[in-house]
Design brief:
The complex is a heterodimer of chains A (about 110) and B (about 120).
Chain A: E1 3-6, E2 10-14, E3 19-26, E4 32-38, E5 45-51, E6 56-59, E7 62-67, E8 72-77, E9 86-94, E10 97-98, E11 104-109
Parallel strand pairs in A: 2-11
Antiparallel strand pairs in A: 1-3, 3-8, 4-5, 4-9, 6-7, 7-8, 9-10, 9-11
Chain B: E1 4-7, E2 10-13, E3 18-25, E4 31-37, E5 44-50, E6 53-57, E7 64-70, E8 73-79, E9 87-94, H1 98-101, E10 106-107, E11 111-115
Parallel strand pairs in B: 2-11
Antiparallel strand pairs in B: 1-3, 3-8, 4-5, 4-9, 5-6, 7-8, 9-10, 9-11
Classes of the chains: A mainly beta (about 110), B mainly beta (about 120).
Chain lengths: ~110, ~120
């Protein structure tokens, strides 16, 4: 069955450092992959989309990579800030099927 | 109101009650979705409506009954629920169906449901 794994349940990063979150998928060939941010008590908010023919996508301090050979996407936040603390969800998609990962809780320590 | 709104934000119901969750999107989108988010579990897609027509039902029990009277409103009717149905229920919308244009989804704040 199709499976999405995000590296760890929680990740602690010192303020100013780069946070790297991992999303691995198996038995699935997504055409693209989305990343969302979710704060406690709120719905997810879209951050970035990357297509299978794109290696890398950037938006301000955010960078996403997509390696279809490794079946993996990496999500980077550079110069991290305490306000970046949240849960980050990856969501691979093909056709009309979207599957969300459990998410990684990121804590940026001041 | 802007974006996607959901009411109520919190709901406590007994197993024999009947209640409804409401979602409204003010974005002019053509696709709407219901998701369930339980603790320690990923978001689970329940139902998909494209242009008011249901196109997806991911093996959801019949005690959950969706209704989409128009492209801006989506309801989830609940009856004879079980305690394990307690979760955060999220509504989302996108400009076009997922397969058409790989649009981002806009989520509402969710309804926190507790079944006693």
């Amino acid at each position: 069955s199709q499976k999405i794994e995000q590296n760890s349940e929680a990740l602690n990063i010192q303020e100013g450092k780069t946070a790297t979150l991992t999303c691995n998928y198996t038995n699935y060939s997504p055409a693209y992959l989305q990343w969302y941010r979710q704060d406690p008590g709120r719905g997810p908010v879209f951050l970035l989309l990357i297509r299978e023919n794109e290696k890398e996508k950037r938006k301000e301090r955010l960078k996403v990579t997509f390696d279809t050979t490794l079946k993996q996407s990496l999500f980077h936040i550079t110069a991290s800030q305490p306000a970046d603390s949240a849960t980050y969800l990856c969501a691979p998609l093909r056709d009309d099927k979207i599957i969300f990962g459990k998410g990684t809780r990121l804590h940026i320590l001041p | 109101e802007t974006g996607v709104t959901q009411t109520p934000r919190h709901l406590v119901m007994g197993m024999t009650n009947k209640k409804s969750l409401k979602c409204e999107q003010h974005l002019g989108h053509n696709a709407m979705y219901w998701y369930k988010q339980s603790a320690k579990k990923p978001l689970e897609l329940m139902f998909v409506y494209n242009f008011k027509e249901q196109t997806e039902n991911n093996s959801v029990p019949s005690r959950f009954s969706p209704e989409c009277p128009n492209s801006s409103h989506l309801f989830l009717h609940l009856h004879t629920l079980q305690p394990e149905d307690s979760a955060l229920y999220l509504c989302a919308s996108s400009q076009d169906p997922l397969a058409a244009n790989y649009n981002e989804q806009f989520f509402g704040p969710g309804t926190r449901l507790t079944v006693l």
